[in-house]
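User: Sequence in, structure out. Go.
Assistant: Echoing your sequence, followed by the structure tokens.
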Amino acid sequence: MTILITAVRQTVYRDLIARYENPIEHACDIAVGQQWTSVDGQRPDGLCDEAWKAMRPFVEALARGEGDFFDGWMRNPLSAMVSCNDGFRPMSFYLEVI
């Protein structure tokens, strides 16, 4: 199966960044609205490693035809909403079977 991955929202916790993060020049290349496709649960080219680590189990399950995560969590049972592991500026991704 083919899974469409869409970056839908990024949250930035400026207070946490100011308090805990070492200054960095560049944190994330992903933009809201950006999309990738995963065929048979494979990682799409150009997708951030850390984002893939967070979504991989869901993408692989959807590619196997599984879904309905957490007993009805999503309106569309063949979809999931996941976020990357960046505690300062997490990006949320919508995953859906297409």
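User: And one key feature?
Assistant: The longest strand covers residues 2-10.
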